[in-house]
Write a structure and sequence with these properties.
With about 475 residues, the protein is α/β, with parallel strands linked by helices. The strands form 5 sheets. Strands 1, 2, 3, 4, 5, 6 and 17 form a 7-stranded mixed beta sheet that branches. Strands 8-15-9-10-11 form a 5-stranded parallel beta sheet, with helices on one face. A 5-stranded antiparallel beta sheet has the order 18-19-22-21-20, with helices on both faces. Strand 4 and strand 5 form a beta hairpin. The longest helix is centred in the first third of the chain and has 26 residues. The protein is globular.
Length: about 475
């Protein structure tokens, strides 16, 4: 038997590494097991998010967005320059630099906080035991009073489009294209599909997005989703709704995709195809036979509101449990679980978790949409404000989009905030804070905002709930 710990965390992604650091900060002897190995054969931390997900995709989104700004919009604001050209290898190099800095930062934080990093594949073999198998196949068993499973998730693969190296790829493979494909297909018009489609569309690809659902971004308020769809179409994304992929074939190094829509059977040919139809929990092999930890029919580990499993000493967080598959949700669960293990009272407000699509403009939301509230039988008042009426947005040459605030008609409590616009992912924090503190729309309306700032659009949308918006014609009778 190897060393004994107070806490062993399996997985060093955004949930796992945060849980490990928090536990160590609370005085618990903590280890974190990670199996991710980079191209050089070195174990790296950060999981999907830092290595092949959130962080590298944002690097390419930023690079490609700045390229489009320079190519299409600098002249509009008085900057004349020769037509820029994208340097994809250099963009990939920058992306890797961003990855390296982030994963290196986690290793440094482990050392600074006294977290023991264990390289290898972790498996719960008992209520207080974790078996770790290293790259050479050697297994070592560690003892821990508490175990936190933070194994994450992996992309869903679908039978009609089996992954084929370099041609049919998942989200990770889409970050590795060494040149811009002329014709790019994307299956799935969700967060990942829209972001990756945007990257390569900006760099010159003809992008077709095939989405099986009939509604575009059903989790977003309809007014926001409708405006976003129009903008993405204007940018060159050909989004086909109600398109159900039925098969694919590789011909002459091209991908022929078959799908059905309202018009019947269709066929389209791409140079590359990205499959972005969602993610599934990575739990197979993580929980040993006989441990007794319950999983649901989809492979998610069953937990309560504080992420306890049915085995008292075992917790699970992040993508491998219920709820949204979001890095920040996993991180907050990691903090909560560490606090619970240390004997503190802790909980999470799952109603106030923001979501962001990092397109340009960005789409961000928290809480209910107007449609959600009405479906729940809640009478609401809403207020909207366009960025085209915001001074800073106009000065930024970014007038697209709007802010929408949804409030309970009886109590005025903020139920949701939805934003389409530049830096929506930053602005949504105001809505999150408002909901976390149980604020009313009037609370936001009575708050003094800096001028000029795009955040004033949130202020005006809150004012508009009661028909009091200053910088737009009021459509409601003042109360």
């Amino acid at each position: 038997m190897a060393d004994k710990f107070d806490v062993i965390v399996i997985g060093a992604g955004p949930g796992g590494y945060v849980a490990a650091i928090r536990a160590a900060q609370l005085g618990l002897k903590t280890a974190c097991v990670e199996k991710w190995v980079n191209k050089e054969g070195k174990t790296v931390h950060g999981g999907t998010c830092l290595n092949v997900g959130c962080i590298p995709s944002k690097a390419l989104l930023e690079s490609s967005h700045k390229f489009v700004e320079a190519r299409d919009h600098f002249a509009e604001i008085g900057i004349d320059m020769e037509a820029p050209t994208p340097n994809v290898p250099k963009m990939l190099e920058f992306k890797q630099q961003v990855i390296d800095k982030n994963v290196g930062g986690i290793s440094a934080l482990f050392k600074a906080n006294g977290v023991t990093a264990i390289d290898g594949t972790g498996k719960v073999t008992g209520g207080t035991q974790v078996e770790v198998t290293d790259q050479d196949g050697k297994a070592t068993t560690y003892e821990a009073d508490n175990i936190v499973v933070a194994a994450g998730s992996v992309p869903v693969e679908i039978p009609p489009t089996p992954l084929t190296e370099g041609l049919i790829v998942d989200s990770a493979g889409a970050l590795e294209f060494e040149e811009v494909p002329q014709r790019l297909g994307v299956i799935g018009a969700g967060v990942i599909g829209l972001e990756l489609g945007s990257v390569w569309s900006r760099l010159g690809s003809e992008v077709t997005v095939l989405e099986a659902m009939d509604d575009f971004l059903p989790m977003v308020d309809k007014a926001i989703a409708k405006d976003a769809q129009k903008l993405f179409k204007k940018q060159g994304l050909d989004i086909q709704l109600g398109a159900r992929v039925t098969g694919s074939e590789i011909k002459d190094n091209e991908v022929v995709v078959k799908y059905t829509d309202a018009k019947g059977e269709q066929e389209v040919t791409f140079d590359k195809l990205i499959v972005c139809v969602g993610r599934r929990p990575y739990t197979k092999g993580v929980i040993g036979d006989g441990v007794g930890v319950e999983l649901d029919e989809r492979g998610f580990i069953s937990v309560d509101d504080q992420c306890r499993t049915n085995v008292p000493s075992v917790f699970a967080i992040g993508d491998c449990v219920r709820g949204q598959m979001l890095a920040h949700k996993a991180s907050e669960e990691g903090v909560m679980v560490a606090d619970v293990i240390a004997g503190h009272k802790a909980e999470m407000n799952y109603d106030a978790i923001p979501s962001v699509i990092y397109t340009a403009p960005e789409v961000a939301w928290v809480g209910m949409s107007e449609e959600d509230a009405k479906a729940a039988g809640i009478k609401v008042e809403t207020g909207s404000f366009p960025f085209s009426a915001n001074g800073r947005a106009l000065a930024n040459n970014a007038p697209d989009g709007q802010v929408k605030v949804i409030a309970d008609a009886e109590t005025d409590r903020v139920l949701g905030v939805h934003i389409l616009g530049q830096h929506a992912g930053e602005l949504i924090a105001q809505g999150v804070i408002a909901m976390e503190f149980g604020s009313s729309a009037e609370d936001l309306a009575l708050t003094c905002y800096a001028h000029p700032s795009t955040s004033e659009a949130v202020h005006e949308a809150a004012l508009a709930v009661d028909g009091h918006a200053i910088h737009m014609a009021n459509r409601k009778k003042r109360k």
